[in-house]
Amino acid sequence: MPPAPERLRPPEGLWRRRVASFGHAFRGVWAALGSEVHLRFHAIATVVVIGLGLYYSISRVEWALVAISVACVWSAELMNTAIEALTDLASPGFHPLAGKAKDVAAGAVLLAAIGALVVGGLVFIPKIFTL
Ligand SMILES: Nc1ncnc2c1ncn2[C@@H]1O[C@H](COP(=O)(O)OP(=O)(O)OP(=O)(O)O)[C@@H](O)[C@H]1O
Hints:
By secondary structure, this protein is mainly alpha-helical. The protein contains 4 helices and no strands. α1 packs across α2.
């Protein structure tokens, strides 16, 4: 195996290593945003939901529920992207287990999205229809 590129070698010092880990994590989100259409859709949906929350002045608890829902969808989609990439690396050809891994990962996104829709509906529909 070729040596790791210089930027992937862990820097000296606890805090430098922590900061580097954050850098890797943000690079992961950025890379997924660049390659995954679904994530760009989530980004637009997140901006719309924040806009609705500000417009309707939702409560602190409602913001908390919305934030958890948004974070769950983003986390599930990022995990799905990672599992898809690892599956394609480990099993470039057809394999039933590869298909199962991708289907289960996609199922996690689906459940998170349904939960977010339920929360969004419970928070915003009463406000929209009482105007
Ligand atoms: N190597 C494989 N072996 C068996 N089945 C696979 C394999 N790769 C993909 N599949 C099947 O095809 C489906 C779609 O896979 P694909 O990699 O195109 O993901 P996707 O759902 O289109 O996600 P995205 O749009 O994010 O790429 C999977 O959910 C799985 O059922």
